[in-house]
Specification:
This protein has about 500 residues and is an alpha/beta fold. About 35% of the residues lie in helices and about 15% in strands. The strands form 3 sheets. A 6-stranded mixed beta sheet has the order 4-5-13-10-11-12, sandwiched between helices. A 4-stranded parallel beta sheet has the order 8-7-6-9. It starts with 10 loop residues before the first helix and ends in a 6-residue tail after the last helix. About 45% of the residues are buried. Bound molecules: pyridoxal-5'-phosphate and zinc ion. Zinc ion (ZN) binds next to loops.
Length: about 500
Amino acid sequence: MQLSDFPKEIIPYLLPKAGGNLVYRCLNCGEEYPISQFLYTCPRCQGIFMILDKDFDRLKDIPGGLWRKIFDYRKMLNNPSLKGIFLFHEFVAPNVPLEDIVYLGEGHTPIIEANDYMKKLIGCRFYFKYEGLNPSASFKDRGMACALSYVNYLIREMGLEDVLAICASTGDTSASVALYASALRGKVKSAVLLPKGKVTHEQLSQPLGHGASVFEIPGVFDDCMKIVENLADNYQVILLNSKNPWRIKGQESYSYEIAQWFDYDLENKVVIVPIGNAGNITAIISGFINFYKTGIINDLPKIVGVQSNHANPVYLYYLEPDSKRRVFKPVKVRPSCAQAAMIGNPVSMPRVIQLVEEYNDLAKEKKIFVVEVTEQQIMDFMLIANRNGHIVCTQGGESLAGLVNALDKGIVKKDEEVILNATAHMLKFISFQRMYFEDSFPKEYEVRPKEELINEPMLIRPSDISHFPDEKSLSPEEFKEFVEKMSKAIADCLNLKKK
Ligand SMILES: *Cc1c(COP(=O)(O)O)cnc(C)c1O
Ligand SMILES: [Zn+2]
């Protein structure tokens, strides 16, 4: 539809202009810094940043009902800059002009309801939001689209060229950095640090395929992170870990999309998300707060974070009910099938601590919870989900296992509707499925395959067939015999009835 065909009262809002008054704000000392430079931690106290729009209140001048129409009509526009996370431009990075936005197909992932069998099994109505359908097959693309759009804008403003983007990663961040940097070839190149042997082959193939410099580090993610931080402190690089607050801004779009999908009615809704470095849960909380403060949604959904008991520092922190007595202690991680969340010292913890309090205060009740799951549950529930029409990764299995435990503890009620974050595509973590089916998990994982969930290919090679086409080329008679006897063997195996 042409711009002029939209309703008159909406047209002035459809194409957003660059605006806002954004600053980096240190969560530790409160100091603010201009965003015209690349900064990741507070130069004064090393604290972590959030991006603050000091003119946020201007967004309240537009009534919630009008915002809802703006976003819904804008979704019909065929402008690539606004097709992804920047549909919510005013809330994501309003300083970035439309011409600088990098859009590779991220965002607006579908929310797919569980079938009747699954709902009965689990005990409530629930959905998966498929973050695996983003271009690099994980939710990381949301943050990267925002961060690289901002970088692209600064490059043009400052006349930079060939800047180096760098990250440490449990696999998916590097895939996403490499993809977006490769789209900006000539302006941005990328280097990624990965813990050797602790990312899947599929994940490793992604940055290699997109042409990044890939460094394997003998250690775990937390070790890679320390090196990257040191590099960012001492060399001219752009750090793209979720320490970078632009990523959080992009990932807030996840919440905006949930609101839009449910026609902005979030009463009785619960959002469940696995926690690793805690960037995702930070963004989800922050996103819902922004929409709530501007009257776009009237209810704050319940949010449940999930951690494996092999990497559970956030869970342990919130075990202490008295907020004044809570002390954050990093943990030493053990091998986890939810490998992308296998992080013992989450970078965004200070953000989480602050935002959880703000969220609960706004809601006037406790709305954020953290539950723990076992490795066995992660695997079993991932396989069960995928046997019922889904495409979830191990972290998606972790979300579902988290729902089971949250129902069990009474944190989620049977009459609530739950949206589970399926953070990546099942194929990225398919090696865990293989270990399950082959019963080859190293014992530290503490996973025992359940017979009824194992599925393996069956070789059919009946002994009454004289020749097979993988040995020699068959004569017409031999080939006929081969087809008929093979069909019979498969039909017997499947208990098929004759027509
Ligand atoms: C990064 C990642 C996580 C963890 O998200 P955080 O923002 O680090 O908490 C979970 N699942 C997948 C697939 C990921 O790539
Ligand atoms: Zn500071």
